[in-house]
Write a structure and sequence with these properties.
Blueprint (H helix, E strand, L loop, with lengths): L1 H9 L4 H5 L8 H12 L1 H25 L4 E3 L8 H11 L5 E3 L17 H58 L8 H6 L4 H8 L2 H13 L7 H11 L1 H4 L9 H75 L20
Antiparallel strand pairs: 1-2
Helix pairs in contact: 3-6, 4-5, 4-6
Main location: membrane
Subcellular location: Membrane
Pfam families: Ion_trans
């Protein structure tokens, strides 16, 4: 801008108008607008070329059909193809064509060489219809479509740039610059994101470490420092120092989760063994009770058998005693056990 100021002071004051552009880099909004236009330079150039071609087509039609009576925004001068085209470029983007300030109601085409009234009426109707279609298509194609295309290109670019800016701000706010893990990933494992980016993956600690290596004598490097210094010298190898998609918080959490899972597994197995032992104990208790009942019944039967054996012996002894006396064996009194007495 110093050269522009000198040119304005030494040559002409027009150069000072160029110095006004120095405000553009200092304004974020102006820079944003210029960036939007710069991104669509190719598309805008093609659209402008198509617009000029459309204006050239309408200029030729107006010069051939309505010479000398064609106006755009109350400006005439359609004497040649070039002047008619320049007229459309200057004023055709602002307003639709008109004829002698009467819009399309009074256009005059070359006279028809006939005296037939009906033919003249149809000719006038066709002239009016042609002028109407010409003005309608001109308004739609030039004033609406082309202008909307240019505006749409700029507006779409503004939207894309805004989304890109929001995405960058979101990455800066909710994503770790070192490991590229987002805030939600840390919150899911119970780690505070702010603590992670200030203590574990502090960006400035990496910067300070690089400055520390640059200022330290290479002969005094330790093994890890020597390895890191070699990686810092090569841009492609530098990323090996960065823990991308890695964090100690996830390892600690994974270890805690693994220990919890191990304890849960042990508890489940102990619980299953306890349930199995309870079932086995209940089954053995049932078997033992059944065996005890069988033992009681066996002892009862044994006692009854012994009692019957004693009764039989008593009966035999009494029969033996009654035999020598001459009595009938059947007349001997029965023991109490056989008679139902206890």
């Amino acid at each position: 801008m110093l050269g522009v100021s000198l040119a304005g002071a030494l040559h002409t004051l027009v150069w000072y108008s160029v110095a006004v552009l120095d405000v553009v880099p200092q304004s974020r909004i102006m820079t944003f607008v210029l960036d939007a236009v710069r991104r669509n330079t190719g598309k805008i150039a093609v659209t402008v070329l198509l617009l000029l071609m459309s204006l050239y087509f309408y200029a030729i039609v107006s010069w051939l059909v309505w010479p000398g009576q064609y106006e755009l925004n109350q400006h005439g001068g359609c004497d040649s193809i070039l002047s008619c085209w320049l007229l459309h470029i200057d004023y055709g983007l602002l307003d639709a064509p008109s004829w002698d300030n009467y819009a399309y109601a009074n256009p005059e085409m070359p006279p028809l060489k006939t005296t037939n009234v009906i033919s003249l009426q149809w000719y006038d109707m066709g002239t009016t219809l042609a002028a109407t279609l010409f003005q309608l298509t001109y308004y739609i194609v030039v004033n609406l479509v082309m202008g909307a295309i240019l505006a749409g290109l700029i507006i779409d670019t503004f939207s894309e740039m805004r989304q890109e800016s929001e995405r960058k701000d979101r990455d800066i706010r909710d994503k770790c610059f070192i490991c590229s893990l987002d805030r939600d990933s840390f919150e899911q494992v119970g780690v505070v994101f702010q603590t992670h980016i200030t203590e574990e993956h502090n960006l400035w600690k990496y910067v300070w470490f690089k400055l520390y290596l640059e200022q330290k004598d290479p002969l005094a490097y330790t093994g890890p420092e020597h390895h890191a210094a070699q990686l810092f010298r090569h841009k492609n190898e530098f990323v090996r120092l960065i823990p991308i998609k890695k964090a100690l918080a996830f390892r600690r959490t994974a270890g805690t989760v693994r220990e919890t899972q191990d304890l849960t597994t042990v508890y489940s197995r102990v619980k299953e063994l306890g349930e199995g032992t309870s079932k086995l104990t209940a089954m053995l208790s049932t078997r033992f009770q059944e065996q005890e009942e069988d033992s009681k019944r066996l002892r009862l039967l044994t006692k009854q058998g012994e009692r019957m054996e004693r009764t039989v012996r008593q009966l035999e002894r009494r029969l033996e005693e009654a035999g020598p006396r001459g009595g009938h064996p059947t007349e001997a009194p029965l023991p109490g056990a056989l008679m139902g007495s206890p």
